Amino acid sequence: MSNQNNAKLSVSNVEKIFHLKNSESIIAVTDTSFVVAENEFCVLLGPSGCGKSTVLRMIAGLEQPSAGLINLDGREIMGADRDRGMVFQSYTSFDWLTVQQNVEYGMKLNLVGRKERKERADEFINLVKLTKFKDAYPKQLSGGMKQRVAIARTLANEPSLLLMDEPFGALDAETRWNMQELMLSIMETTHTTVVMVTHDIEEALFLGDHIVFFSSHPGTVLEENYVEFKGGNRVTRKEDVLVLDGYADAERHIMRLMREQGTEHLD
Amino acid sequence: MTDKQASNRAQKKLWFEFKKPISLPVTVALGVSMWVIFFGLWELSVPMGWVTELLVPGPTKVLSALYNLFVERNFLSDVGVSIYRIIVSFIAACAFAIPLGILMGAFRAVEAFFNPFVSAWRYLPAPSFIPILLMWFGTGDAPKLALLFIGVVWFMATIIMDHTKNVRTEFIETSQTLGGNRWQILRTVVIPAVMPDVVTTMRQMLAVSWTYLVIAEIVASTNGIGAMMMRAKRFIHTDEIIAGIIVIGILGLVFDYLFRALHRAMFPYIEEHGR
Lengths: 267, 275
Ligand SMILES: Nc1ncnc2c1ncn2[C@@H]1O[C@H](COP(=O)(O)OP(=O)(O)OP(=O)(O)O)[C@@H](O)[C@H]1O
Ligand SMILES: [Mg+2]
Fold this sequence. Notes:
The complex is a heterodimer. Helices cover 36% and strands 25% of the residues of chain A. Chain B is an all-alpha fold. Chain B has a single domain, classed as MetI-like fold, CATH 1.10.3720. Chain B contains eleven helices and no strands. Chains A and B meet through strand 6, helix 2 and helix 4 of A and helix 8 and helix 9 of B. The site of magnesium ion (MG) has 3 residues of chain A, from helix 1.
């Protein structure tokens, strides 16, 4: 799955400088390049503050790169648009809309007809197992359910790329693990290309086809890992990935990187 | 110690636990008691010789004055005039302040243009405009409506601006990554997200409106609740003055209640409906 020829997304020599109010500036990300293949589940991993969110937000078009180029499907991206749907860590289901209305929201913006809108919403609500709650308001849902609404809403809008910034970060361990498995089964059905940010190593190894590891200060790609131990397959149950040959080595390797990078800026 | 004493003690203790809820009947009884004590002391104050009846007529006397006002003195038309002034000026203020506040909160450029102007007006006490409003608009409804309008509109715009700024950025960004354009985001995210706070702000500002109404009617009016009270003052009808105060209080409560009900009906998806 690491083929550069069928590049879906390419990030080339991207840099992001934030100019602060006191006329100082922070180089959040520098000289960052990586490529995501069609249908790939790409995970951006790295210690806190290394610029993962910034890279994801630039891909989404919510931030402008200070330098470099981001191409999606061979075209340079211009601002935020429906072809790059984003799921945030904080809950973003609109609290004035029901689950059904939330999932239809993006399609409504894009003038999808009422009948098709409803059918597609039903399909994606079913996919995230919320059919029983389709008329509920977000206040009646748990955190995991709210994230499922956000995922269904984004996928129902048929983005070319699904972006997720620590989508399960606020969930408890069991819910998080269920959501990870749900995510893989969704990928099985929809064949979406995903770029997800996390700093959970287990999550990265379980979900990722391709892990991009960032170093911190300034953030840049330190190494890429194609989780060869999974043999190019996706493992659908989390307990099964833990016993694969090579899993422990990969986890240890990444943990070491994380430790080196994480402590570097404390000195 | 008997069981009764024990349970009494348990209850007494419960009343004075920090932040612990008390039962509904107790809550109601306590609330009513305060009023009973208040009316009791008031009714007693004349026979006990604490005050003269001329300055503090008892509650029964005030009630009969109230009855008289409505039945024989056509007080209803005064009340109607006051309500009319409140509603007309308040609608005008909302029509101006709500869109302005939302646009100032949503777009920095709109804020930069209007806010220095709007903030300056906020610090001018509205009643200081009464003399000039009278010169401009004469003695009809217009100066009162103008006073109510300027008394409320600047605060309302600023408060709504602040609420709009608090609309979560992730909501807006989510809509952007779903393909929403500027107008769609304003219409489908910013406005619905801020609407509950707008209605709460309207409720609070309506109470302020009542304050200015009474000032306007006392200072310069021949009709309305405040004017009735000034007429009564001239004839030393203290009971009618107090009756006027009570009517204003009740109307304030009724409007407040109506806005709460409106809030609950409009926003069933909200957990807490503000106080
Ligand atoms: N809007 C901004 N203004 C100024 N500095 C910013 C801004 N956004 C991010 N930064 C800075 O850029 C750097 C990278 O931040 P970013 O949020 O991308 O890190 P991250 O890898 O997502 O961290 P975490 O794992 O904690 O979410 C940090 O030093 C941060 O302070
Ligand atoms: Mg982040």
